[in-house]
Task: inverse folding
C-alpha cells in the first residue's frame, strides 16, 4: 500500500483530521526528514496495530478496528467481565498483526504487576473477535508489547517502573511452538535509553524494515532505535525525533512501500509517520 495526499474530505470526527505534507512526497522516494503523513481522529489510550486495510486502536479493555484511510470504525470489541474468558482483562498495552491475527500484550498492572498474558484476536475481513489467552510466567514485570521479527522469533517487553527500578525492564526473545511461547534469551535495555524513560519504562516496540528495533517510552515524541549484536547484546543505535506520536504502543506498517511507523497521541488521534532516509 502507498501513501499520498489523496485522502477523503473529513465529514465526521472519525474521518481524517488532516494530511500533513512537508514538500512533495513520492512513493518511490524517502523523505529528508520525518514527516507525519496521516492523522486520524481515533481515540486510543494504549497503542495501535496495523495491517493492509485496517488500524487497531487499542485501549485498556477495548479495541476499535478502523478503516486505514477514512478512520471509519468497522468493528469494535469490549471486554465482557461477565464472560469467564474475558473477566481478567485489565490493561491491554499494544498489539501486532501477525499472519492474520492480532496479538496483544496484556497485564493486570497495577493490581498484579506480574500477571501477564498474550491476547489473540481473529481479524479476518471485518471481524474483531477475542479467541485465545496465553498466560505468561509471572516473573519479569508487566508485559507492555509483543512483536515477531521477520526471522520468526518473537519478542516481548516486561516493564518495571520507577527511576530506581526501571533498569530491570526486560526484553525477552521467544520461540512459539504448539501454542506456547518458550523463552530463548533475555536482554537489558541500554543505559542511554533507560535514562530517557524518567520514572516510566518501555511502552512500545516494533521491528523495522531495517532489522532494527524501534522502541518508545511513555510520553515522548521520539523512538529509540536498538540493535542486537552478534554477541547477543542489546545496543543503542540512534533516536528518531519528531515522530508525530507520544510514546505508547507503536507499529511498523509492513504493507507500506516506504518506511511508515504508526503511533498515537493518547486519547486524541492515531498518526502515521514516514521516516527519513538516514543511516
Result:
Amino acid at each position: 500500500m502507498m501513501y499520498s495526499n489523496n485522502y477523503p474530505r473529513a465529514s465526521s470526527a472519525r474521518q481524517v483530521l488532516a494530511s500533513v505534507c512537508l514538500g512533495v512526497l513520492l512513493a518511490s522516494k524517502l523523505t529528508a526528514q520525518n514527516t507525519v503523513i496521516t492523522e486520524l481522529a481515533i481515540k486510543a489510550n494504549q497503542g495501535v496495530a496495523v495491517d493492509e486495510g485496517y488500524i487497531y486502536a487499542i485501549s485498556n479493555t477495548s479495541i476499535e478496528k478502523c478503516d486505514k484511510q477514512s478512520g471509519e470504525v468497522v468493528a469494535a470489541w469490549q471486554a465482557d467481565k461477565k464472560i469467564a474468558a474475558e473477566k481478567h482483562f485489565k490493561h491491554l498495552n499494544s498489539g501486532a498483526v501477525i499472519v492474520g491475527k492480532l496479538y496483544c500484550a496484556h497485564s493486570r498492572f497495577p493490581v498484579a504487576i506480574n500477571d501477564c498474558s498474550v491476547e489473540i484476536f481473529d481479524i479476518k475481513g471485518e471481524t474483531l473477535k477475542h479467541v485465545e489467552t496465553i498466560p505468561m510466567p509471572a516473573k519479569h514485570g508487566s508485559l507492555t508489547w509483543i512483536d515477531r521479527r521477520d526471522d520468526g522469533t518473537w519478542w516481548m517487553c516486561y516493564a518495571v517502573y520507577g527511576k530506581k527500578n526501571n533498569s530491570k525492564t526486560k526484553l525477552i526473545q521467544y520461540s512459539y511452538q504448539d501454542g506456547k511461547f518458550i523463552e530463548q534469551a533475555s536482554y537489558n535495555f541500554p543505559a542511554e535509553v533507560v535514562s530517557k524513560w524518567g520514572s516510566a519504562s518501555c511502552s512500545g516496540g516494533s521491528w523495522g524494515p531495517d532489522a532494527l528495533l524501534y522502541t518508545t517510552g511513555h510520553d515522548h515524541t521520539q523512538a529509540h532505535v536498538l540493535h542486537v549484536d552478534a554477541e547477543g547484546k542489546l545496543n543503542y543505535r540512534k533516536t528518531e525525533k519528531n515522530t508525530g506520536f507520544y510514546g505508547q504502543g507503536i507499529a511498523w506498517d509492513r504493507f507500506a512501500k516506504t518506511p511508515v511507523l504508526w503511533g498515537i497521541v493518547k486519547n486524541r488521534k492515531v498518526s502515521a509517520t514516514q521516516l527519513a532516509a538516514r543511516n
Helices lie at 191-194.
